[in-house]
Write a structure and sequence with these properties.
single chain; alpha+beta; 28% helix; 28% strand; globular
């Protein structure tokens, strides 16, 4: 499994409700039909920011989705949610998971 981990702050005037609304529309109109998409989790951070964890079946699936970002309907609404300069992205690939 491959994970995109994106941390950010909301742009001025953007509510958490608006973020969830826009993210839901992105899922509905674009992301859920992409090959390899598993989930998109949005969490709050203790510093007042947010972190998204987007899970993909493989690195290739994630990279192919990245190439398709130019096809996101109403992408401007999504980008307007983020405070300019606050977005930090990392990627992880699971090598081992320890479970109970």
């Amino acid at each position: 499994m491959y994970k995109d981990i994106i941390s950010y702050k909301l742009a001025e005037g953007v509510s958490e409700e608006r973020l969830i609304e826009v993210a839901g529309q992105i899922i509905k109109d674009w992301m859920r039909d992409l090959p390899g998409f598993i989930s998109w989790e949005i969490s709050t951070n203790n510093d007042g920011g947010y972190t998204d964890i987007v899970c993909w079946k493989s690195t290739d699936d994630a990279k192919n989705a990245e190439k398709e970002m130019c096809n996101i309907p109403n992408a401007a609404d999504w980008y307007k949610c983020y405070l300019e300069g606050s977005v930090v992205s990392k990627n992880t690939t699971k090598i081992k998971i320890f479970e109970k």
